[in-house]
Amino acid sequence: MADGVEEQLIAMRGFLDGEVAQRRLDRLASHFSEENILKEEQLSREVCAKLIRRSVNSSVLASLMAGCYPADREKIFNFFINRPDLETPVEIAKTEHRELVYMQLTALVNEGGVNAMKYLMEDPARYFTIMEAVGFIDVSLGIKFGVQFSLWGGSVVNLGTQKHRDKYLEGISNLKYPGCFAMTELHHGSNVQGIQTTATFDRMTDEFVINTPNEGATKWWIGNAAVHGKIASVFARLQLPSPDSHLDTDMGVHAFIVPLRSMEDHSVLPGIEIRDCGYKVGLNGVDNGALRFHNVRIPRDNLLNRFGDVSRDGEYSSTLPTINKRFAATLGELVGGRVGLAYGSVGVLKAACTIAIRYSLIRQQFGPPNKEEISILDYQSQQQKLMPMLSSAYAFNFATEYLVERYAEMKRTHDDDIVADVHALSAGLKAYITSYTAKSLNTCRESCGGHGYAAVNRFGSLRNDHDIFQTFEGDNTVLLQQVAGDLLKQYKRKFEGGALSVTWTYLRDSMTTYLSQTNPVVTHREGYSHLRDPRFQLDAFQYRTARLLHTAALRLRKHSKRLGSFGAWNRCLNHLLTLAESHIESVILAKFTEAIERCEDRNTRKVLNMLRDLYALDRIWKDIGTYRNQDYIAPNKAKAIHRLVEYLSFELKGVAGSLVDGFGIPDVLLRAPIGLQSGQYTEYSHHIGFE
Amino acid sequence: MADGVEEQLIAMRGFLDGEVAQRRLDRLASHFSEENILKEEQLSREVCAKLIRRSVNSSVLASLMAGCYPADREKIFNFFINRPDLETPVEIAKTEHRELVYMQLTALVNEGGVNAMKYLMEDPARYFTIMEAVGFIDVSLGIKFGVQFSLWGGSVVNLGTQKHRDKYLEGISNLKYPGCFAMTELHHGSNVQGIQTTATFDRMTDEFVINTPNEGATKWWIGNAAVHGKIASVFARLQLPSPDSHLDTDMGVHAFIVPLRSMEDHSVLPGIEIRDCGYKVGLNGVDNGALRFHNVRIPRDNLLNRFGDVSRDGEYSSTLPTINKRFAATLGELVGGRVGLAYGSVGVLKAACTIAIRYSLIRQQFGPPNKEEISILDYQSQQQKLMPMLSSAYAFNFATEYLVERYAEMKRTHDDDIVADVHALSAGLKAYITSYTAKSLNTCRESCGGHGYAAVNRFGSLRNDHDIFQTFEGDNTVLLQQVAGDLLKQYKRKFEGGALSVTWTYLRDSMTTYLSQTNPVVTHREGYSHLRDPRFQLDAFQYRTARLLHTAALRLRKHSKRLGSFGAWNRCLNHLLTLAESHIESVILAKFTEAIERCEDRNTRKVLNMLRDLYALDRIWKDIGTYRNQDYIAPNKAKAIHRLVEYLSFELKGVAGSLVDGFGIPDVLLRAPIGLQSGQYTEYSHHIGFE
After folding, report:
1. DSSP H helical segments within A500-572, as ranges?
2. Residues of A marked as binding for FAD?
3. With bands split at pLDDT 50, 70 and 90, how would you rate the model's confidence at A492?
4. Can you say which residues of A are annotated as belonging to the binding site?
5. A478-516+525-654 adopts what CATH topology?
6. Which CATH class is domain B334-667?
7. Which whole number is the average pLDDT over A435-447?
8. Domain boundaries, chain A
9. For the segment B90-124, what is each residue's pLDDT rounded down to a tens digit?
10. Is A559 in the B-facing interface, judged by CB distances under 8 Å?
11. Architecture (CATH level 2) of domain B179-319
12. Sign of torsion, CA A155 A159 A165 A167?
């Protein structure tokens, strides 16, 4: 071997710090020689990096990442690119922001030709593509859009019947009826069954009478209520007068259409009190309000009666036998909101990654003595902050695409198993992804230092706007418990010999593996090809989930005897939340792996594999205590995983620029000067008025 | 034993889930019986909780936590409580916010009788008490205060000589000279040695000529520059014309006093270009600007000449031999800013904890079937989010008090060892605490759900204002490297037989321990009294630090041969950052333990011990992978630690209300309706206009 090559090989070996080096080199060599593209001397780090760079084709990536409706996305982008008058300025007061977002929405509908309700009902994937795209214009617009169509529109479509659709659908679509979704109350958010607003049937007049019985029952945070909303679907306890008593019978939570403001002059209607919820941490382009009702009368027809109806005589009827079943059906229809948030959260993560990574590539600070400064992405610490995040954005992209497909399938088939699957999946992905994105936005700001703190560079508004994604449409801590609950149901079913729903089939195998001993050979394997094998990675994720599930079931059973089921659940709550996250992580990994297999471009597959490996190994390393505690992973294997995480982060930073280009966010929408494709500093200086 | 008691004992045993239960009960029993306050039947959880509650005296805590100058804190609070006209509204535009904060500052000085420069020079502890207190009014005010006095004033006092103090000090104190600290440039923040602004001596006129040679050299983020500043201390490379060449000699970075605006009409002076850095993520009450200099001439006397001077003939003189030593001395004097930020960050954490915990106590959601809803702080998940945070706020309080003491000692003695110690300590505590607080602010918002998203409830502004604490006065990632560098210096010294500075003496012992085998008996000990023994906790922290230090030194030596010292450092960067954090955590734990020993009230000590245990064990648990990987902690011991963390969080939530009362933040300054001591919901409803 020539001296130079030897030196390079030694250099690489040094990098890997250990005995694995030789094996890794052998593996790399065989890997590349299989493909006949490499001679030995090309194994140096620089050459590897070049090779990877060569293999990344941003436009292949972009078309892979653009989703099922790239043309719709493009159309939305172009509409706003051509309307700079609608661009949200860097600093804007609440009042002006609300008006601007409303103008953006009306322009989209009236001039942009978007018929959101049609897509929502006929083609959810298209609907979510558009919702994500408008989020790039202004997150407030995405949410205003969601309030009007997913929530207010969705409640009419999903909880109402044909008469409601006939009456309201067109006005919802064309914004003649800007509306609200009035569920949350001052005292009750997560616990919807605890809401206290009442809708009492008055047989005399054939009306419902809506009332706010106490301060805690004030509807709160109602989007569109403070300024623009004319109507609301109000969630209230249906009270039916009993024929043989003076007391009303509480039939549980139902939704009612309640006009709030006059269609003519927009004045607030009698009996209705509206207050402005005021300035928020973010999303100030959305006008949230608080509502109180004082004997507000609505016709009987305004009950959204798909799951329960009241006759002229005050008789209640339903195809569903119990209050709990009706409640579950009612809330179940609203799962689309979660799908939209999970999908939109990935969009926010992509935008933040793009800005942070582009800036980290041009920002230079310090360097070797008497040499040029190096880019901050050349620092191991910066790679550690941003590269696993980039891999997660890719991973989440494929997972949420899968979720949207499953959701569309559910809407098409109404198959019970798919319904259950989509419920748990949307809860889990929404919770996991929005929590991850929220944390990442902080990391992005911090990793971009002072210039990350300029509002124009977007991290502040993205973080503030996105923050509440963790809470609305289901608090993340509550949603993860739903996932855990579903897993436990599946677990029970497994032992009762029943079928598992699709996303959970892995549990059968891994449970068997878990219940047997861990394999001591695998525990110690630390070779490069083994660690990068998706089967090892998936097995590690699924082993952890299976183990957490099994132990959770045992602990719950033990504690229930003494504490009751509620007490036992609370005693194991941290355990259950970890279980849910573990499950979701393995679903994401599985979907990422499947998406890579479907990718036809060989070079792109290679880079995606690196991203997938980093996603998986970084998470295994972050939870290494669990794996070590069970001796699933031996100490030296743990170290090898850590080294590989650092190495993959190092390798990927060489193509990080192309990988964020793959997200396909146009500069003019991204807006952040430090996040542009070129000329960042100059644009940034221009922004504050230097010539 | 009576049946009821037996049942309660079993209940407790059940809680602890394992074999440790009996030992714990024995221990608890002996512990309490020692104090003769308990009979056996009082061992139930409820009784335990009551006991703890009884032992917490908020006013004892409050006086313990109020620092050395409670009267000054009180005076500041009262001044602003009596000036509601100076209160920052929930929504305020940048321009108005800047004016309001300036009014707050001038009122404080002119009417509140605060002579900040006097305290800064004579009694730093008093200065920091006041700076922290004004941060409760508005974080922007705390920073505006810091810019004027610590930075601009500090540069004159610490880098200048008597002539500068005579000329400027009074005007700085009484705000006749609002000033700036112009160090950072567009291209250089952390790497101050890379700044490019020049100050060329002109022997003909006995002046320095200040220039901005290129776009990247634009001074950026300069506080007070956009609106209020009249003068600045400008950091620039001193250029001296060489007698025998046409080239100037670069003497390195020095600070110069440069007038920016006319003292008469506030117009910008010739040759100076000022731009507004614009809207920021937070701190919009501070007016940051960008500066460019075009042949701006200043008299030779305007060089802040404590560490280097230029004679009339253009001869350079200094008591320090090299550019690097002068640079270190110059930057070294600015360490006070870090002390202030660490101290102020704890104040922000206390405010956020107070709001989040008080709300979590009154917020109820869900509950056992057919029973009342329970408070969200009754959930294990909420305890896990907030109780370790509360324990950290207490821990940080004592650590930063210690830092302030050491800083004052340094200022008094100028002892070299103390200087080195304070430098590393202030860097480490600033980085560690501000990162922790930044993360906690997100957790607080998220854990308070929708109502945490109302701007009036403060999490948004606290987070946005505090965010940049992670970056300014030294980027956290850079500061932690300084700590790691200092540790490695100490490590080297140890092996060369020299003395260790005070904060590091533990390394000698633990290094010896580490280099021997871990003790297999201790590895398996999992008893309650052992885990709650501060000696075990500190040993675990110090073992980890010693081990990380030892392995870092070995790795650096190995990599240096091939990669050079810069490359080796970067190759080990994640390792080094972990090392620095580990060290700082052990310093915090040690200071917490010492503070508890000094506390004379026995009952208070008991509660503080619980907080200390939670602080320590939670961190050990979070890093359990490291401990497991070295078998420092056996698997069952790891589980016992986790159980104890959950149990301590559970126990502490019973007294969490009193513990946040101990922070002593008046309701009227805390402002957040959901964080008030009582009547939260009603106040919150009033805020949005309901009667």
Report:
1. 506-515, 520-524, 528-531, 534-571
2. 184, 223
3. confident
4. 184, 223
5. Butyryl-CoA Dehydrogenase, subunit A; domain 3 (1.20.140)
6. mainly alpha
7. 98
8. 3-55, 66-172, 179-319, 478-516+525-654
9. 999 999 999 999 999 999 999 999 999 999 999 99
10. yes
11. Beta Barrel (2.40)
12. negative
Given a cut of 80, is residue A528 above it in pLDDT? yes
User: What is the reported pLDDT for A10?
Assistant: 38
Number of neighbours of residue A134 by Cβ within 10 angstroms: 30
**ipTM metric:** 0.92
Q: What is the pLDDT of residue B30?
A: 43
Q: Which long-range contacts (CB under 8 A, 24 or more apart) does B114-117 make?
A: B114/B76, B115/B173, B116/B145, B116/B148, B116/B149, B116/B153, B116/B173, B117/B149, B117/B153, B117/B157, B117/B169, B117/B172, B117/B173
**CB-CB neighbors (< 8 A) of B369 in chain A:** 566
Are A454 and B278 an interchain contact pair (Cβ–Cβ within 8 Å)?
Answer: yes
> For A565, which residue in chain B has the nearest alpha carbon?
B368
A611-628: per-residue pLDDT in tens? 999 999 999 999 999 899
Catalytically active residues of A are 473
A571 touches chain B (CB under 8 A): yes
Report whether pLDDT(B416) > 70. yes
- Cβ contacts of A691 within 8 Å, gap of 6 or more: none
Residue B473 is a catalytic residue: yes
E strands in B75-215: 179-182, 198-202, 207-211
Return the HEC string of A300-336.
Answer: HHHECCCCCEECCCCCEECCCCCHHHHHHHHHHHHHH
Residue B209 CB contacts under 8 Å (≥ 6 apart), including other chains: B199, B200, B201, B202, B295, B296, B297
Cβ within 8 Å, pair A282-B218: no
Query: What's the predicted TM-score (pTM) here?
Result: 0.92
The partner residues of B180 in beta bridges, in order of sequence, read: B232
Contacting residues for B381 by C-beta, under 8 A, at least 6 apart: A477, A573, A574, A577
Report yes or no: A104 and A111 within 8 Å, Cβ to Cβ. no
Distance, in angstroms, between A384 CA and closest chain B CA? 8
Q: Which of B185, B473, B581, B585 is catalytic?
A: B473
User: CA-to-CA distance for B626 and B584, rounded, in angstroms?
Assistant: 17
Question: Are A211 and A237 contacting, i.e. CB atoms less than 8 angstroms apart?
Answer: no
Amino acid making up residue A432: Y
d(CA B577, CA B542) in angstroms, rounded, equals 16
